[in-house]
Amino acid sequence: MNILIIEDDEFLAEKIKNIFESKVITNRVCILHSLWEFQHHMSIISSYDIILTDIKLSPHYNNKDGFEIIQIIRKKDKKIPVVVISGNSYIENLRYAFECGASDYIIKPFRLKELEVRIMNWFKNYYLSHLYFLWNIHSYKWLCYDMGSNEFYFENQKIILTKNNKYILSLFFVHREKLLSENFLIEKIWWDICFIINRNLRVNILRLKKWLSPFWLDNRIQNIHGEWYIFSAQ
Q1: What is the pTM of this model?
Q2: Fewest Cβ atoms nearer than 10 Å: which of 108, 111, 179, 185?
């Protein structure tokens, strides 16, 4: 799970970051403090799974940059969960946030544990709702993913994987039976397409398939025409 936090209160932003960095399913947490920083970050916005943003991002009384941020995100990505965290409880602002495309609105001050529960719930409902679910375990064709422990199991046998391999497999697991481009996977895993060459992605996927082969799961990851991947049990 990749999370973007847009919050001008540096102390609060770090507290929120620490919560989610401690979660075993988290791959990356990034903090931005202003609309300007966000605009310079737009090229990789699709690499995030959840976005949290404040509405007021400067000391100016009438500043409402968060609304513009939501609108910009919605022009690029219609579905990614965007959760507002704001000290402004006026119903007009809450209504306008939802009109702009906010997924949820959490009023400050809030309990950090409540924020954690609600964000994790958004992640599960948006990315894992299509999978068979029992307690905290999601299943697809006898492959099970335990979100709480960030572990994969096949027929009740634990699959030993590195954290990086778990994240790559979770991407395939969440987007099963869908074509995924190399650029999509690189953005999600390393965030910067220019920073990593495609060959490294292929090496990482080959390593993952090696660890999956004792369970006869390696063939579920298929390379299509060199630039696309699909995870399927068909």
Answers
A1: 0.81
A2: 111
Buried b (16+ CB within 10 A) or exposed e, 91-121: eebbeebeebbbbbbeeeeeeeeebeeebbe
Three-class secondary structure of residue 24 per DSSP: coil
Closest CA to 231 of 163, 192, 162, 185: 185
Q: What's the pLDDT score for residue 196?
A: 53
- Dihedral of CA atoms 133, 137, 138, 140 in degrees, nearest 10, equals -110
With a cut of 70, say whether residue 198 has pLDDT above it. Answer: no
Class of domain 132-231: mainly alpha
Look at residue 127 in the predicted model and tell me its pLDDT.
79
The third-level CATH classification (topology) of the domain covering 2-127 is Rossmann fold (3.40.50)
Helix, strand, coil tally for the chain in percent (to 5):
45, 20, 35
Q: Could you give the residue range(s) of every CATH 1.10.10.10 domain in the chain?
A: 132-231
Torsion of CA 178, 182, 187, 193, to 10 degrees: -160
Which pLDDT tens digit goes with each residue over 115-148?
999 998 888 888 776 655 656 788 888 999 998 8
Q: What are phi and psi of 101, to 5 degrees?
A: 125, 15
- CB atoms near residue 52 (< 10 Å): 24
Calpha distance 94→88 (Å, rounded): 8
Q: Please state the length of the chain.
A: 234
Distance CA 120, CA 194 (A): 30
157-186 confidence digits (pLDDT tens): 999 999 889 999 999 998 889 999 998 898
CA 12, 18, 21, 22: dihedral to nearest 10 degrees?
Answer: -140
